[in-house]
Amino acid sequence: MRHILKRLLQILLVVVVLAVVAAIWKREEISRLLAVNSLFSEEKIVQNFSHMDGAFLTQSLARGDGPVSELPIGDAITLPEGSDNWIKTRSVTSLVVLKNGRLRFEDYYLGTGAEDRRISWSVAKSFLSALTGIVLADGAIASLDDPVELYVPALNGSAYEGATIRNVLNMSSGVVFDEDYLDFNSDINRMGRVLALGQSMDEFAAGLTETFTGPGETWQYVSIDTHIIGMVIRGATGKSISELLQTRIIEPMGLEDAPYYLTDGYGVAFVLGGLNLRTRDYARFGQMFLQDGQWNGQQIVPADWVATSTTPSAPTAAGEQKYGYQWWMASDAPEGEYFGRGIYGQYIYIDTNRDVVIATNAADRGFREDGVNDTNIAMFRKIASSMD
Q1: What angle do CA 253, 254, 260 make, to 5 degrees?
Q2: What is the pLDDT of residue 36?
Q3: Helix (H, G, I), strand (E, B), or coil: what is residue 247?
Q4: What are the helix (H) ranges across 178-278?
Q5: Planar angle of CA 366, 274, 132, nearest 5 degrees
Q6: Which pLDDT does position 17 carry in this prediction?
Q7: Tell me, what's the pLDDT at 284?
Q8: What is the rounded distance in angstroms from the CA atom of residue 171 to the CA atom of residue 313?
């Protein structure tokens, strides 16, 4: 009996030692996973959204050696009635308003500041759309109607085989992907754990096998479609998204600070939601689009791509919000009004008719409630019209 007990204690000791070794070996992965599990908690969300490099692997993008492209200062405005309540209710952390290319309003809330580099979430999709237009104009991509597997052979046999680049830009791939952020086992949350544990986003995307309809038939918001766009661009150019975004958009625009991407364990940028910038730099990007892709006399994004990508083209249902190439339009949007949108209240809103750009970041844990997006767009319109 004593021998058996001694043997059990030895086995237990070995198990404990192995557990300790594993914990040390996987310490970073475990720390990231724990950080992800509390990423959106009420007491941490504001801090987390300005310091995402503390929870994920990242890659910095150099802003270049050129001077910062200054935003001219215009006459300061007072926000319209109801703004204070909107800012509080929607947990807004930053708000920057441009009119005629001039900074007319800027403020920061909930203990954040102008220098914070804030998570874009799905606003990053609009940046990747811009890069798609650049690569298409370069000729690296021959046609938006090419199948994605032409540039990414690893997608042969996956749910994406047969889908075109246009289909994934339009979020009409027909691929089954559960985007329920509140379901621990949803595809979007499984994807988050892949990112946190340093696994491969490419393998995750290529491992999807189910479709619910044919490509191009139905619009359904599927965030992983944007990762496929990134895979296509990388396959077409032989370059990383980080390198391309840095050299073709970030450096020429003279942003204030070096942005960074969240990445997987293979250094692949989390293109569908992992870009981090200062709010003023989100506004600069919006102003560049408002100016038909020009910035400081340089054509950054082809003007025809700006027009095409921000025009409704996806097969959305009647009465729903409209969608272009990774840009949104309200169901009642006049021509020239569009926006990039990310979960928890991230926006770049552009009204070309009024020459207004509004960039805002937030930590809105109620962002999925009915009518919230409509309320936000209504406030942006109210701010824009107040400067007429």
Answers
A1: 90
A2: 64
A3: helix
A4: 187-196, 201-206, 224-237, 241-245, 251-253
A5: 115
A6: 45
A7: 98
A8: 10
